[in-house]
Design a protein that fits this description.
alpha/beta; Isopropylmalate Dehydrogenase; Alpha-Beta Plaits; 2 domains; 6-stranded antiparallel β-sheet; 4-stranded parallel β-sheet; elongated
Length: 370
């Protein structure tokens, strides 16, 4: 098993933009940008080339999140054309993770957005033997930070049972990054020799396979005892090479034609048995003369008006979608007027999201039956 996971590390749901909007519903915004996606994807290909790797897989969930994950997938396909010497393939993240857990040998490099990368890096470390084995690198412009894949484990602090391999291998990566290849090779080889001799910490110890069960201190001492130059040939330097972080790449100078064609109005509504048909008729009545018309109401993304299903269980969080007639551009004052009508009718508006088209194509996900 020799898998390299390249994970975007600034965007996605990790931006931490969350809101509690009603008594029952909270939200988290998922942000995916073109520059962020292009940068990490190109770096994955450059790193694959630098390390002599043959394949790059992209994991997303763009069958559901067609705009955010769809953007990441689209940029992967575009950038892959610049690397004809490397095989490129996309997988939906759920089956991709399943295949990684079952047949990791078919993967070489995996690139993905932030959240998926966080999950599959732990999966990859665990199936290699233990999450305690994984080292990681955070690469930026002129700066880098190296750490173990795992988080802290306060429940075993001071008990002399933790596996220090993740931190050690992160340090090996750091030494290669700094150009001290001799020290990195020496430490890496000593660590490999320790494992080969069957000296294992509790997380990877197996009776009948391991020779001795060691604590953190004794495992570290065993590595130090094996710091010998003769073991250097055991490590493949090519697979430890770093690529330069891309600082520039071709970008389109043309801005798309962006037009405002509607709005999603989110409301907190918890009256009259949460009847969506009653709510829909009320909103249609108050927006009769507006330049925007109500196309649907959803509850947690499920359409409930018009033609919703009676068995749908509704919360107090509703999305009311308004679009202009024939998707003609409208002014912001039209939306302000719409919100004023909601206010006058006593409906609690908790959020709005403008609907735009870009070069005539909707820049928002379609509702059911829309």
């Amino acid at each position: 098993m020799d898998v390299l996971i390249v994970r975007e590390n600034e965007e996605d749901t990790y931006a931490g933009i969350e809101h509690r909007q009603t008594a029952e519903v909270t939200q988290c915004l998922k942000l995916i940008s073109t520059p962020g996606s292009e940068r990490v994807i190109r770096y994955a290909f450059e790193l694959a080339r630098a390390q002599g790797r043959r394949r790059v897989h992209c994991f997303t969930k763009d069958n559901i999140m067609k705009l955010t994950d769809g953007l990441f997938h689209d940029r992967f396909d575009r950038i892959a054309r610049d690397y004809p010497d490397i095989e490129a393939k996309h997988l939906i993240v759920d089956i991709g993770t399943a295949l990684l857990a079952d047949r990791p040998e078919q993967f070489d490099v995996i690139v993905c957005p932030n959240l998926y990368g966080d999950i599959i890096s732990d999966v990859a470390a665990q199936i290699s033997g233990s999450v305690g084995l994984g080292g990681s690198a955070n690469i930026g412009d002129g700066f880098a930070m190296f750490e173990a894949v795992h988080g802290s484990a306060p429940d075993i602090a001071g008990m002399d049972v933790a596996n220090p391999s993740g931190l050690l291998l992160a340090a090996v990566q750091m030494l290669h990054y700094l150009g001290d290849h001799a020290s990195a090779r020496r430490i890496h080889a000593a660590w490999r020799a320790t494992l080969a001799d069957g000296l294992h910490t509790a997380d990877i110890f197996r009776p009948g396979h391991s020779q001795d069960l060691l604590g953190t201190r004794d495992f570290t001492t065993a590595i130090i005892e094996r710091l010998r130059p003769a073991a250097l040939a055991e490590v493949d330097d090519a697979r430890l090479a770093w690529a330069d972080l891309p600082t520039d790449w071709p970008r389109s100078s043309r801005k798309p034609n962006k037009q405002l064609i509607g709005v999603d109005v989110f409301i907190d509504y918890d009256r009259f048995g949460r009847d969506p048909q009653r709510l829909g008729r009320r909103i249609e009545a108050l927006t009769e003369s507006s330049e925007l018309w109500l196309t649907l109401i959803t509850n947690r993304g499920v359409r409930v008006y018009p033609q919703g299903l009676p068995e749908t269980r509704c919360t107090d969080h509703w999305r009311c979608r308004f679009r202009s007639f024939h998707d003609q551009p409208v002014a912001h004052r039209v939306i302000i007027d719409l919100l004023a009508r909601f206010e006058a009718d006593g409906l609690d508006v908790i959020k709005t999201e403008n609907l735009y088209s870009f070069d005539g194509k909707p820049g928002f996900s379609q509702g059911q039956g829309e």
